[in-house]
Amino acid sequence: MSTFLLSRSQEEMASWIQACQAAIDQTEKRNETFKAAVQGPEGDAQEQLQSEELGLRAPQWVRDKMVTMCMRCQEPFNALTRRRHHCRACGYVVCARCSDYKAELKYDGNRPSRVCLDCFTFLTGSVLPEDRDRRRGILEKGAPPGPGQSLMCSFLQLLGDKWGKSGPRGWCVIPRDDPLVLYIYGAPQDIRAHTSIPLLGYQVTPGPQGDPRAFQLQQSGQLYTFKAETEELKGRWVRAMEQAAGGCSPGVTDDGDLSD
After folding, report:
1. Could you give the strand order of the β-sheet that contains 203-206, starting from the edge strand earlier in sequence?
2. 88-92, 145-149, 183-187: least confident range
């Protein structure tokens, strides 16, 4: 009898150790995924998995601070009703509504995991009705162009009554495929710009109170005030905007493209 109990106890202990090891391995796998995302260079575009790799290996997560809106429906996040979640298949930062789906992921032991609708459709072959099929507006140009696709891009501080006294930073972009328009995003990987300014006809003037890093765009009562991180960066933006305001594509070379 004692031999039977001892054997049973050893089996239970072995099962418990295996379960603990599996939990440790899973935690380490997720930590490595998160660590890779955290250590990625600030402002770099998210390296997305190829479609054929979805579910086969863990994605690199887009960091929360790199987006201010859902990367699927473009609705802004907030702390109460629209919080951030990660799709376990592609790594996008998405809202609860856009990630309210489950799919089995091979890299996670084929366990059902939270995924976005796009990945759910690809992984399961199921097509769900969508109410978000609509035309893109002028502010929706897809992900902001990176340095290779933009004539100018960097953070600029937004000043003046239009933005409030707090002066938030905006990710400002003049795309190569739309060189006479300035697009302002909340963060480098937001999918939709919150402001677009057709630069044609604007005057570029010095900033208020002689601030050497500030400058303004003025036209017919419209006034936008920006502040660059350095005077050199301000000078490049002023030259680019002056050329666009005159109807010419800003003459900025690849070496002059900016990222932050």
Report:
1. 195-198, 181-185, 169-175, 150-159, 222-227, 214-219, 203-206
2. 145-149
Residue pair 245/201 in contact (Cβ under 8 Å)? The answer is yes
Helices (H) and strands (E) in the chain, counts: 3, 11
The whole-number pLDDT of residue 44 equals 38
Would you say residue 155 has pLDDT above 90? yes
The alpha helices in the chain, defined as continuous H runs, are 2-39, 117-124, 231-245
Single pTM value for the model: 0.49
Alpha-carbon span 258 to 230, nearest angstrom: 13
With 0-12 / 13-18 / 19 or more C-beta atoms within 10 angstroms meaning exposed / middle / buried, residue 238 is: middle
Of the candidates 119, 117, 116, 181, which has an alpha carbon nearest to the alpha carbon of residue 145? 181
pLDDT at 93: 93
AA letter at 241 = M
**What is the torsion angle, in degrees rounded to the nearest 10, for the CA atoms of residue 139, residue 140, residue 145 and residue 150?**
-40
* Rounded-to-integer distance, Cα 181 and Cα 123, Å: 38
Write down all domains in the chain, each with its CATH number in brackets. Answer: 51-124 (3.30.40.10), 147-256 (2.30.29.30)
CA distances from residue 40 to 15, 61, 92, 106, 195 in whole angstroms, order as listed: 38, 10, 15, 25, 27
- CB hemisphere CA count around 187 (13 angstroms): 21
| Mean per-residue pLDDT, 118-142 | 59
Share of the chain above pLDDT 70, in %: 65
Cα 227 to Cα 244: distance, rounded to the nearest angstrom: 19
The pLDDT of residue 82 is above 90: no
Instruction: State mean pLDDT over 162-176.
Output: 81
